[in-house]
Amino acid sequence: MSDTLSTPITELNIDLIKTYLRVDYNDDDALLQNMLDAARSTIQTFLNRPYTDFDPVPQEFTIAALSLIGTWYNHREIYSEQSRGQEPLPLMYQAILSPFRVWAMGD
């Protein structure tokens, strides 16, 4: 597990994600790859800057990605107004990423 958490988000792969999620079958590999791609994109969009702006890439990005992927994988339903009591993204997501974000005017 520690290898997974110390891997930069740019190097995360399906095998590391499956270790984190404790998935030992291949049926969901395509789904997990889509979730990894979406997590990378979501995080970069939230940051308002590319990963190349960081040297080294903070480990917090990996933790945020794994948190997102874990949430999406374990809660595949669509969130709506009726599901307000459930957070669509882990609360720690913003707490982890906000210190690295470039805030735009009006944020």
Sheet having the most strands: none
Assign an overall shape. Answer: globular
Q: Give helix % range.
A: 40-55%
Could you tell me the CATH topology label. Hypothetical protein yqbg
Counted beta strands: 0
pLDDT < 50 stretches: none
Overall pLDDT: 85
Percent of residues in beta strands? under 5%
- Tally of helical runs: 5
Distance between the termini: 35 Å
Note the run of SSEs as H and E. Answer: HHHHH
Decide which structural class fits the backbone.
mainly alpha
Number of domains: 1
CATH architecture: Orthogonal Bundle
Radius of gyration: 14 Å
CATH C-level category: Mainly Alpha
InterPro entries: Phage_gp6-like_head-tail, Phage_HK97_gp6-like
Protein name: Phage gp6-like head-tail connector protein
Pfam family, one: Phage_connect_1
Description:
This protein has a single domain (2-76, 85-100), classed as Hypothetical protein yqbg (Orthogonal Bundle), CATH 1.10.3230. Helix 3 (29-47) packs across helix 4 (59-74) and helix 4 (59-74) runs antiparallel to helix 5. It contains five helices and no strands. The chain has helices at residues 2-5, 14-21, 29-47, 59-74, 91-97. The longest helix has 19 residues, at 29-47. By secondary structure, it is mostly helical. Helices cover 50% and strands 0% of the residues.
Q: What is the gist of this entry?
A:
The protein has 107 residues and is mainly α.
